[in-house]
Amino acid sequence: MSDQSKFVAGVVLSTLLSFSVFAAEETPLKAADRAAILQTLAAKLDENYIDPAVAAKVASAIAGKNAAGGYASAATTQAFSAALSKDLRQFSGDLHFRATVDEGFEKPRTAADETRNQPARRGYGIGKVERLAGNVGYMELTGFLWPAESVGPAYTSAMSLLAGTDALILDLRRNGGGSPASVAYLMSHFFPAGDKRHLNDIYDRPTDTTTQFWTLDTVTQRYDKPVYVLTSARTGSGAEECAYDFQTQKRATLVGETTYGAANPVGPFSVGHDIVVMIPSGRAINPVTKTSWEHVGVKPDIAVPAAQALQTAHAAILRNLVSSAKDDKDRTDLQRQLAMVEKGETEKPVYTPRQDR
Alpha-carbon distance 188 to 155, whole Å? Predict the structure, then answer.
């Protein structure tokens, strides 16, 4: 498997969506073309899908539908790939499956492709770093980009900015996933130096190998304050692993919605006529629970609509800070800030000169 394929195997939602960018124009398909595509697809499923019995069932169901003329109206690559996406999911019950049209899938990568994938141009997947009222840190991660050795130092820099906060909110509500190695790099900041944690395993069926993911000793910035992780129904793949790691390691409180439920890693496979099928070829295995969030999602500790998760987490943190404050002035200020957060208000910035100079 190429380096690119290895990366894609660690991504579900964000990678799946990216293929549509390169979608081809409508290309006609004949009945013989569809039959050839389905024959190739059946072979790819048999060789790579994580559950061989389900692979055989799905291949048989699709072949039967084709024999009955069920795909006769899918006369273009776009229409046929859309039909395959729907049926692969329906016949398997696996939402990872997706078929798209990608003319450039098997073409050599260009300099433009490399530039597009540079993590620096995407902010290393860090959407925002902020200090909220009450000295609460906030970091939004919109994706776990690769390679980990490139994005990891950016995580450390962000954590350095937040090192002096009294609690941290990690926002994964818009995060569709990414590299499990980058997840491990981020997680390494939240345990003491020397406290090495086994976070996740990924079994790959095509190679019959298992890769383990552990926290890293080399991460220098560590954070030992309370952590709250925000989730939504959109939180997927590697972002779900991150939330699940925090939860199973008892290191954070999860706030928001049950996540997407896409644990198993996927890989892209060409089935002919520029159609590429994303096939789940591996299985995530958490070392604590011996299972994963596949199909069921990661359930939050505090369930609220995703749009209310930040306010809920911020208010919960401020309540704890109020109860533990030892200085009367600090307590009064925290109570004032808590009242504003509970009302959904924020302090307005002041740009006029101070009068007490």
Answer: 10
CA distance 263 to 232: 15
For 300-319, b/e burial (b = at least 16 CB within 10 A) is: beeebebeebbebbbbbbbe
Domain ranges, ordered by start, for the chain:
24-101, 123-264+296-310
Query: Which residues neighbour 223 within 8 Å (Cβ) at sequence distance 6 or greater?
Result: 159, 162, 163, 168, 189, 190
Grouping H, G, I as helix, E, B as strand and the rest as coil, residue 64 is helix
Q: What is the pLDDT of residues 262-311, one digit of tens each?
A: 999 999 999 999 999 999 999 999 999 999 999 999 999 999 999 999 99
Place of tokens 């060789």: 47
- Token code pair at residue 98: 């997706």
The answer to whether 171 and 250 have CB atoms below 8 angstroms apart is no
Between CA 207 and CA 52 the distance in angstroms is 14
Q: Residue 332 is which amino acid?
A: T
Q: Are 189 and 223 in contact (CB under 8 A)?
A: yes
Order of all β-strands in the sheet with 253-256: 126-132, 136-141, 167-171, 227-231, 253-256, 302-303
Distance CA(214)–CA(225), nearest Å, equals: 21
Residues 310-339: pLDDT tens digits? Answer: 999 999 999 999 999 999 999 999 999 999
CB 277 within 8 A of CB 268: yes
E strand map for the chain: 98-101, 126-132, 136-141, 167-171, 198-204, 209-214, 227-231, 253-256, 266-272, 275-280, 282-285, 302-303
Q: Which CATH number fits domain 123-264+296-310: 3.40.50.300, 3.40.50.1820, 3.30.420.40, 3.90.226.10?
A: 3.90.226.10
